Structure prediction request, 290 residues.
Amino acid sequence: MKLNYGVVVLSEFMGELLGTMVLIVFGVGVVGGVLLKWSKAEDAGWIVITIGWGLAVTMGVYVSGTVSDAHINPAVTLGFASIGEFPWSKVPMYITGQMIGAIIGATIVFLNYLPHWEKTKDQAAKLGVFATAPGSSAEVRSPLSNIVSETIGTFILLLGLLFIGANQFADGLNPLVVGALIVAIGMSLGGATGYAINPARDLGPRIAHAVLPIPGKGGSDWSYSWIPVLGPILGGTYGALFYDAIVNQAYTAPFWIVSVVVASLLIGATVVELTDKDGQSDEQIKETII
Prediction:
């Protein structure tokens, strides 16, 4: 039976909404378990968080994969669209579903840990349940470097997804492999910024943190919020374009334009980080001392 176009669109919208909701329930949920006071998982550590996020992605893909393309990530949607693997006409609908699902998922986590918010006095920990931040100290808060980290992580994510998609697996195995990719990214690269690698994963829960009546919460750190949005979009788009160029020899104008942008970002971040506040590089300082 041929489905009405409106029914198909609604199904895909709900697939992305529910898949992203499940992603956030499990992903933000594991962070809440580790960070909030008097949780049985308190202080379980980074390994638990990265495994939890990997399983969260796997479960989200299983939920949405039967009715949508299981992107559950605007960076994936935009990356696939940039190389013609996904129609641009569906991009707004997919991203809207992902954002709504992320906000709902974060709200469910808030409700799950209701007694723990008041017991947790650390405002940064409360925000950390919902949103990402660079490292474990303000000393590594550097916009260019933080964007570089998110760009690299999402670049690897899209490359991995496209290479995984090029392989044949037993039915139902793909989401497990994708989950393993997320764990690998988190363990290896995630320590720098908390590896949002997904604009909806950070912005949706950050909005929830801002509007929910969380006892004793602080601000939602909006001055940082653009980094886990812009970085993943840039990295995801470039990852897809890079794959298309290498595998399909599609050296298009968008590929070269984004290559220049990414190269400029990498060079700029390197110059900023290797130059002290007085404008002297570490090497120049050593020469002065000698």
Remarks:
- Residues 5-256 form a domain with the Glycerol uptake facilitator protein fold (CATH 1.20.1080.10).
- Residues 5-35 form the longest helix (31 residues).
